[in-house]
Amino acid sequence: MLNTPIRIILVDDHKAVRKSWKALLENNPLFKIIADCENGDSAINEAERLHPDIMLVDINMSPLNGFMVTQKVLEKVPDVKIIGLSVNNLPKYADKMIALGAKGYLTKTSALEEIFYGIIRVYNGEIFICEEVKKQIKTPNN
Fold first, then answer.
1. Domains of the chain from N-terminus onward
2. Distance (Å, rounded) from C-alpha 105 to C-alpha 128?
């Protein structure tokens, strides 16, 4: 069990989405939202300033999308664990995030329990891809 909550920065360009995620996550004593950012530049600055444990980064933002934010944050603060968060459930998005150094990928329609579980797994050093994306990945046995 954790002695201190997992420190999280939320990155999404929609204020209502950030507020919802913040409320959902902070209902769990394992998590503490230390910042919420409405754009990539703000996310990069806050990551440098606060050194969070986890960043939940929306993919579809502009001018910097989640892929660019992931790349830039990890150049400056390589120990931050980034989880991509998107409405998009295509495996290629998850693959690209992981290739850029992210440690996880969740969809905005993932069950709350799966989101909590994914954040904890990534915090503990594992890579986590939500079921909604994993079930679409073609394996030789499919």
1. 6-134 (3.40.50.2300)
2. 6
